[in-house]
Amino acid sequence: MIVGHSEYVAADSLWLDTIPAHWRMGRLDHVARAWPSNVDKHSVAGEPPVRLCNYTDVYKNASIVQGMVFMAATAPPEQIERFRIAVGDTLLTKDSETADDIGVPAYVEYEAEDLICGYHLSIVRPIPGAVEPKFLYWALSAGPTTGQWTVLASGVTRVGIRAGDLAKPALALPPMDEQRAIAEYLDREIARIDTLIEEQQRLIEMFRERRQAVIDASFSTLGEPSVQLRRYIKFLTSGSRGWGDYYADQGERFLRIGNLPRANLQIRGDIQLVDLPAAVTEGSRTMLREGDLLFSITAYLGSVAVIDGDWVGAYVSQHVALCRLERDRVDPRFIGWFMLTTTGQDQLNEGAAGGTKMQLALDDIRGLRVPTAPIEQQRRIASHLDRQTAKIDALVAETERFIELARERRAALITAAVTGQIDVREMV
């Protein structure tokens, strides 16, 4: 059982209330040097070749290790000397589109003469004897530190950590032997949590593969799709342009391309409302009815939906095709589920290929080939897929929730260890 320390004192910090009595508070620049890189991605004739550790290498990886593939570039000798990374460094992402997405750390476990830190990153190098390098990495990963980066960030369209602010974050600093114990404990425990998360992610992949197999198998006895969808279409259109000007807090519902699902037939997401001027009379053309089949035509190609009662009367955007079928001959859900088969998805993506912009024309929708079956069989297939995919989706949602809880546990454990909320010295 993990317990706290026997005695705590006030931390005198905006970010921590208390710390263990034998710990101290200090700024990052008390224990490390930190500086931003300005190495760009260009190659210049006559400059020495280098490998760049770039933003995505740090953002997507907890560690920089041997075997990673880095970008080839060149740099002048003075930049190579200044920005060459070393084992024990922590690299930080120093800017992003939002303030809560900066200061993401990666620990350097591999160094080479030609491997340097690229633009959009900062190097944090521990001062020997002042801090345990891996403890510093974990401290920079903790919520109190990432929260400070959020406050220190500046900018409008893109926010970042200014060079002068790299030194400012406050850290809780235990004695060196305890830093090593905390680093060892977190290395072990976080590795276990990460392994568990990876196993659950693989399980989700298996569920999704199974789901696709169930959809494909449901149509396998019907043979190759032999009929063009145009045979069953009563009405086909897309939404009018410029309705973004009518967005409002009250009014009629407006279905956008982001509302179309990626894996089933049910509309999702936030509802946008539009307040239509009296002069706008074209709305009736794009007003949804029960059973209308929708296709994404300018993005998220392959997304389809079938309208049920909740969305009847809403309008569609210009990025969505509204397809109204002869429902006495074909079940819209049958067609919708077929379009989610591997064969159906291939048709939608192939229909959009070849231009400078991936999109489908209404004639591409008319030309889609679909299987034939008696209407009662169509309904049985659609209902079967409604049930079976719902079961699998529930398993995916349950597993995703487990992963979310594991990530919360991961973050809480790091913060608890590096701020002294728990005493891990007897756990290593």
From TrEMBL:
Domain of life: Bacteria
InterPro entries linked to this entry: Restrct_endonuc_typeI_TRD (IPR000055), Restrct_endonuc_typeI_TRD_sf (IPR044946), Type-I_RS_S_subunit (IPR052021)
GO aspect biological process, one term: DNA restriction-modification system
GO MF annotation: an example: DNA binding
Domain (Type I restriction modification DNA specificity): residue spans on this chain: 94-202, 288-393
Keywords: DNA-binding, Restriction system
One Pfam short name: Methylase_S
Residues making up the signal peptide according to the UniProt record: none
Record family assignment: Belongs to the type-I restriction system S methylase family.
Entry protein name: Type I restriction enzyme S subunit
Species lineage: Bacteria, Bacillati, Actinomycetota, Actinomycetes, Pseudonocardiales
